Amino acid sequence: SIKLPLVWFGVGKSRFEPTNNAPWLGRLSSSTLMTSKLWVVLKKVAENLYPLESGEYTLSCAKAYVIRWGDQLTQDGGDDAKSEGGLRMHIYLDSWKRNHYGETLLLNANTSVAAGIHPQLGRVAVFPQSVLRLMHPPAIDYTGNQHVIELILHPDGSSSKTSLSEDEQLHIMEAETRSSDSQETYFAAHFKKLQEDKSEPADMAPFVKKEYTMPDGSGKRFMVLDNVFDMSKIDKIRQFILHHTAYHYDTSSDSSDNVKWVAGLEVGPFLSSSLYLPFQRIVDHFTGTTSYYPYDVTCNLIRMADHTLVHSDCDQHEKRVTMIIYLNPNWTENLHGETVFFTGGMPKYAESLTAVRPRYGRAVIFNGTFLHSARPPSPTFAGARYTFAVKYAESRTHAENEDPSLKTLEDDFGQESEDDIPKEHRTRHFLKTIQGDLEDIPDAGIKEMLQKELDAIEERVNHGEAITKKELTQFMQRVDAMQRESGMIDF
Q1: Contacts 24+ apart (CB under 8 A), 351-356
Q2: Theoretical Cys-Cys bridge with 377: which of 182, 359, 381, 393, CB 3.0 to 4.6 Å?
Q3: Nearest Cα to 136, choosing from 158, 154, 117, 155?
Q4: What is the pLDDT of residue 482?
Q5: Stretches in the chain below the pLDDT threshold 70
Q6: Radius of gyration of the chain from Cα atoms?
Q7: Nearest 10 degrees: CA dihedral of 451, 452, 457, 460?
Q8: Is residue 87 within 8 Å of residue 152, measured between CB atoms?
Q9: Ranges of H-type helices in 244-353
């Protein structure tokens, strides 16, 4: 099994474009992969097909492509100067039928077809890195994704081994800037929380563009607000979304909206940023109360080939609200992508009522029980429709029930200062939680090092030594950092 965040490059979005125009890419840790049983098998395959006179193959780069219908892939490879002696290895990960398309073509120097590779489940294809290749997306009626692992191998000691191509280096740079650490750093640098942010209005009423209430007496409604935010702040949110988020393909069966590409963001940095106050003022204006509290912050990315569904964001008895900000500049009506609202409480019987068109910086807030659907952009739009979404519960207590991580360490340990000593049973409970986090670290060396430190702390507790909350917090933060650094890869 392979678990990894995916980097969305998009068309014209990044100055670091993959050489084959693939929009989705996940970086795999070469060092971790080379310690796996899988690498032992794959290296033997390479050596049998392309024997070396001396030395052995080493892994220079490992990545995962996620390809779907509509991706405009182009040929790449064929750079003899950078790929001399190198091999490219594809591993196909999907159960595949012939009419699903998705083949990889190997091309001659004159771009005529030399060979084709059918993407059969478990198939490994090995060919010189200098060969031109052209990957094809799945068929239009294939609603899933095609997953392909690509490995770049070089002979031990070759100049190419330690000098990755510019494309590979940039992939790594892009992936590394999208860590959880970079999210918090970006929020802290660009959305500093001010005592009083005079650039944001306190009264929301003048900015309400449209308000709609369901005619059935249910009280469900939505509100559209324009020009609330300083556009420089919207620009910064967009830059954050483009360059500091990694997306995950949502395969959960309870994904009612069928929005597959989701970047989950930390609620903590949002709460401590200057975004929190203007968002909260909109929520307070809409709900007529000041008790609502955020529990979910995400970026949804929808492309023209996606198939979104009618859904609600909470159960019909709940009192949640959702606010979204549209983040595509220069959007026109011909690009579609509306948020459509529907009658009733069950998607099966829903009929469309009205819709809100995307506009850069526009805010829409609505009851979570209101059936709605985010429509994909037009087939003429090769990029992605971005929205920044925050969901609110009717109180902090309800928000913590949705996301237990909102319960701070101070809540777990009472209102003690950082140097206060938590009670022994709390300390043991906290250490047990950290032990569970250690199990998720795939790098055996890192896990062993942290396990020794954890064992030492437990030994001190067993001998009656008091452990301060500050020390426990710092150790927990180190475990979190190591989890991200080691890559979340499991072979």
Answers
A1: 353/212, 353/214, 354/212, 356/210, 356/222, 356/224
A2: 381
A3: 117
A4: 67
A5: 1-18, 78-84, 157-190, 192-200, 243-255, 260, 405-426, 429, 440, 442, 480-491
A6: 25
A7: 140
A8: yes
A9: 267-271, 276-287
Strand-pairing partners, residue 301, are 261, 386
The DSSP-derived string for 432-476 is HHHHHHHTT---HHHHHHHHHHHHHHHHHHHTT----HHHHHHHH
* Helix H or strand E encompassing 161: helix 159-162
Torsion (CA) 350, 355, 361, 364 in degrees, nearest 10 = -50
Query: Quick one: which of 128, 114, 164, 165 has its CA closest to 49?
Result: 128
> In DSSP terms, which residues pair with 105 in a beta bridge?
116, 134
Give the three-class secondary structure for 409: helix
Q: Which residue has the tokens 């591993």?
A: 91
SS3 track for 34-63: CCCHHHHHHHHHHHHHCCCCCCCEEEEEEE
CB atoms within 10 A of CB 69: 20
Query: Tens digits of per-residue pLDDT, 45-82?
Result: 999 999 998 889 999 888 888 888 888 888 888 665 45
Q: Is 290 helix (H, G, I), strand (E, B) or coil?
A: coil
Q: Which of 365, 369, 367 is nearest to 356 (CA)?
A: 365
Cβ atoms of residues 226 and 359 within 8 Å:
yes
* Nearest CA-CA partner of 386 in 365, 355, 370, 362: 362
